[in-house]
Amino acid sequence: MSIFIDPDAVSSLHRYKMPRKLGFGRVLAPVMFRAVCQDGCWSIGELVPYTAISLDPAAKVLHYAQSCFEGMKAYRTPDDGVALFRPEKNAARMAYSAKRLCMSPVPEPLFLDGVRTIASYCANLVPGNSGESLYLRPFLMGTQADLTVSTSASYAFYVIASPSEAYHSGNMRLWVERDDTRAVVGGTGDAKVGGNYAASLLSTGRLRERGYDQSLWLNPANRSSVDELSGMNFFAVIGDALYTPALNGSILQGITRDSLIELARDQGHQVVEGEIHINELLKQVDSGVCPEAFACGTAAIISPISVIGDAGSSYRLSKAPGPVAQSLRQALLDIQEGRTEDRYGWMQPLEAIRSS
Ligand code: COI
């Protein structure tokens, strides 16, 4: 597909000075990719200067939450190149999320053009330290302006980029959320939609006051087995095996989760995708049968869990970070950052377009 590159976007990249301190998602690249859709017909994509979006106050996204997004990263490789990690998986998941919200999906070639174009033009903005990357945030929203509860006939697709460190550094303290649920049975828990994240914020606020970092969400159907964290999937080493909740309809189909399952099996671990009962898990942490647990996600990579709090008690993992989390994190980053052969075919090198 052809792509329009606005000369002002190129000039803004020439002028851009990257701040020293990055954090996660706070520094934004001075360009963005966009395309629009009317009645199922998509425009060509454009790389334009980063600017505020103008929306009609009656746009469906603002009232009925027709919007979904993705999280993915461009990595700096040892030859000073830039590479994406499994971008087709993000394209497919965004199409799944769009379908769940009855939105026009972004065609895969347009999605890939978007993420490749912005990552190539922002090659100078891809940080080089291990664990850092250019975080890409594709998103899609319904823009039709009327207040009827009906699917939008018009959409806007954007990709913005943020030179970033990992989302969470150090060990994490989880709190078992027994009251609220993040997802509902038959709902949108397995789609990447903003409402899931909005639904997690009240719980996060409560647990932060108690000195914890993240909610550990339980399955909405039984309220007794572990689903995931607010923006990450969950793994625990129990006995001789690595356990992770199965994809049950209320859990995000994590691309990092999927990659770690494959890496762990190749490292010789037995990986079980199944139900993890929270009361059982807490006993196993207490007795040492579960010595380590970790969360994973595109933004987070792998974050070791040091403590799980529940109803006034806290259960301390004996290994944080534990050896399984450490070796999987290293194996994943070695592939993503190009230090080891990519025998899975996950990495896609890009043409790095230098802005100076
Ligand atoms: C990601 O890992 O890319 C996400 O979208 C999670 C978000 C909490 C940053």
Give the topology, please.
Blueprint: E1 3-5, H1 7-15, E2 31-38, E3 41-42, E4 45-49, H2 60-64, E5 67-69, E6 72-76, E7 82-85, H3 87-100, H4 108-121, E8 133-142, E9 154-164, E10 172-177, H5 194-198, H6 201-209, E11 214-218, E12 226-228, E13 233-238, E14 241-245, H7 255-266, E15 270-274, H8 278-287, E16 292-297, E17 301-310, E18 313-316, H9 323-336, E19 347-350
Bound molecules: 2-OXO-4-methylpentanoic acid (COI).
The global form is globular
Give the structural class: alpha+beta
Q: Report the radius of gyration as a whole number of Å.
A: 21 Å
Can you write the helix and strand succession as a string?
A: EHEEEHEEEHHEEEHHEEEEHEHEEEHE
Q: What's the number of helices?
A: 9
The strand count comes to 19
Mean pLDDT: 97
The total domain count is 2
CATH topology of the largest domain: D-amino Acid Aminotransferase, Chain A, domain 2
Q: Helical proportion?
A: 25-40%
Architecture (CATH level 2) name of the largest domain: Alpha-Beta Barrel
What is the fourth-level CATH superfamily of the largest domain? D-amino Acid Aminotransferase, subunit A, domain 2
Name of the top-level CATH class of the largest domain: Alpha Beta
Strand content: 25-35%
Distance between the amino and carboxyl termini: 26 Å
The ligands bound in this entry are: 2-OXO-4-methylpentanoic acid
Name the poorly predicted regions.
Answer: none
Describe the structure.
Helix 3 crosses helix 4 and helix 7 (255-266) crosses helix 9 (323-336). The protein has helices at 7-15, 60-64, 87-100, 108-121, 194-198, 201-209, 255-266, 278-287, 323-336; strands at residues 3-5, 31-38, 41-42, 45-49, 67-69, 72-76, 82-85, 133-142, 154-164, 172-177, 214-218, 226-228, 233-238, 241-245, 270-274, 292-297, 301-310, 313-316, 347-350. The radius of gyration is 21 Å and the shape is globular. The model has no long low-confidence stretch (mean pLDDT 97). With 356 residues, it is of the alpha+beta class. Strand 13 and strand 14 (241-245) form a beta hairpin. Strands 1, 2, 3, 4, 5, 6, 7, 8, 9 and 19 form a ten-stranded mixed beta sheet that branches. Helix content is 26%, strand content 29%. The chain contains nine helices and 19 strands. It has two domains: 3-165, 2-Layer Sandwich (D-amino Acid Aminotransferase, Chain A, domain 1); 172-336, D-amino Acid Aminotransferase, Chain A, domain 2 (Alpha-Beta Barrel), CATH 3.20.10.10. The two termini are 26 Å apart. Bound molecules: 2-OXO-4-methylpentanoic acid. 2-OXO-4-methylpentanoic acid is lined by residues 71, 167, 231, 297-300.
